[in-house]
Each structure stands twice: as structure tokens, then as C-alpha cells.
Amino acid sequence: MKIELAVSCHYFQKRFCWMLSSILQQVGELPEIEVSVAYIKNKGNPTIEEIVDCFQYNGLSIQSFPYEDESRFQYRGLVRTDMLQKSDADWIWFGDCDMVINPEFFNSAMIALSSDEYKDCDKCLYTGRHSTMLDETEDLVDEFDYPKIIDRAWEMAYNLESVPKSNIGAGFCQIVNVKQMREKHGGYYINKVKDNSWDKFWKTRSDSHFRRRVGKKKIDLPWFIHFQHRRDNEVGRHIEIQR
Q1: What is the pTM (predicted TM-score) of this model?
Q2: Where are the beta strands (DSSP E) in the chain?
Q3: Beta carbons of 123 and 217 less than 8 angstroms apart
Q4: Hey, which of 105, 123, 149, 169 would disulfide with 215, CB 3.0 to 4.6 Å?
Q5: CATH number at 2-230
């Protein structure tokens, strides 16, 4: 079984290193794991290119989806369509790059997705997360220079104070069967031509539209730790700082 984690990363490179570190630290019998990352070329410090080089050197399979500018990249639904169309995985997990992953997640996912209950599921599968406190998280993340593999990433993230969040949110965990997506749901995440309500959900709301279109089903998998971060609405402007 191959599971692909598909994310977009724009000025979240520090937290992305924590996510990738937690993937390298998975335990148990594992599926084939690949990470796909969409980004704008040569942005941020470190750049995604530098992070990819670092983690590929340490054995992680990463597929790059570079974009020249924001013209298409800003539409996450279209970026996820690009990833889905090129995927050769059995399952693709559309996620957020500010999550630290339980070390038993991929082992549990492989077992569950192979079961009769889920193996042919054509719905969006999701689980929950714990969201950390901002100041404590910022202090921890800023301790390191990046790109870097964080030792004991999950353990340190788990020790932060956090609160449970069972809602799906903007789409941090949407796991779908690639074959079913192509055969029953047109092979796209968002189709700007076919979805007449495009103008109403053109950016992050494309995730809730996707879930309504394909349906959703909860799956019992280990929860993530979400690294809280500063948001645009908190400062009244679009933030382009390294997080």
C-alpha cells in the first residue's frame, strides 16, 4: 500500500520540518509513504527546496510541486487537483503542514485502510487533532535553526499544553482512495469549470465544498498535534512571516 501526504506550504517551513521529522520517526510495519509539497519557488527561509534536499537525503520520499507565483497556488483546491491527477498512490491524504504526526499513525492507517470497512470507501475519511497554545509553541519552534530534523518531534509536541479539536476545520485531514476518486468523483478535488459555485468557495472553503461533494466518514486513527500559529485576522493583514 502506498499513502501520499499532500500539503501546500507557504511561510510555514519551520512547522513543516516538524511534520516531516515526525514522518521519519514512524514505528511499526509501514506502508510506502510519499510526501507531496506545493510551494512558490525560492520563498522563505529556509526555502522548501532546502527542506526537500535535507529530508530526501535522510531517506524521505518527497515529490515537489513548485509554482512560479500565487496565480494558481493561492487556490488550494486547484493545487490539490494537480496533486490528485499526478498521484500514483493508493490513498492520498490532503493535509496541513503544521501538524505533528503520532508515531503510530501510518501503521494504524495501513491496517484500517486495508480493512473491509474502508478499503473501497469512496468518502473523505477524517480524524481529530489537539491544538497547542500559541506562545509556548512559538518558543519551542524558535529554539531551532532550519532546515532540521527534530529529534523526538512527537514527544516534544505532545508535551505542549493543548486542547482537543474534533472538527475537520479547513481540511487538515482528508484521506481519500485515489481509485475511487477517479472512478466515482471525476478525478478532481475542485474543478473550476464544472463547479458552478466556484466564486463562493474559491480559496480555503474549497475543502468544505469537497467534503460535501464526496461525503465524509470518521475513521479511528491517532490524532495529530496542531502547532498553533499567528493568523491574518489577529493582526489585520496578510502575514508573510516564517512560521
Answers
A1: 0.94
A2: 2-8, 32-40, 62-67, 91-95, 99-100, 124-126, 129-132, 162-165, 173-177, 216-218, 224-226
A3: yes
A4: 123
A5: 3.90.550.10
